[in-house]
Amino acid sequence: MKAGTLSDNLTDYEELYQYHTDPLLEDTDGDGLTDYDDVKLGFSPLLKDTDGNGIIDSEERVQQTVTKEMKDPGKEGVTAVSVSLSIKGNAEKRVGIEDVYDFDKLSSGVVGLVGVPVEIGCDTDFQQADITFHYDVNALGDTKEDDLSIMWYDEANNWYQILDEDCVIDTANHTVTYTTTHFSTYMLVDSVLWYDAWRENIDYRNSSSGDTVKQNFDIAFVVDTSNSMKGNRISIAMTALGKFIDTMQADDEAAVITFSAYGTLKQSFTSDKKTLKQTFPSMYLSRGTNVNNALLTALSAFDKHDCDKRKIIVLICDGDVNYVQSTIDRCIAGDIQIYAVNVGYAPSHAFLNKMAEQTGGEYYYAATADQIEAAFAEVIGDTTDQIDPTDADGDGLYDIFETAGMKLANGRIIYTDPASPDTDGDGLTDYQETGIVYNVDDRYIGLGHSINIKYFAMRSYPDQIDSDGDGLTDDVDDRPLMVEFSEVAKLNSKFSSHYLNIVGNDGTTYHGGNQGWWEDKAHFQEGGNKLEEQVKLELDKYYRLWHMGCGTIAMSDAELYMTIQNSGYSLSVSNPFGSDFQQTGVCTEDAYQQYIEKMYDTKYAIADDVVNRNVGLYPWDMESGLKRFLKANNNSSRNVEWARYRRDTFIKEKQEIVNEIEEMLNKDIPVVFSYNTFEEDDGIRLYVSLENAKNDITTNNDRTPPSHYMTIVGLYKYASDQPMQYKYILEVVSWGKVYYIDYDMYAKNLNYFSNILSVY
Question: Rounded distance, CA 358 to CA 325, Å?
Answer without folding.
Answer: 10
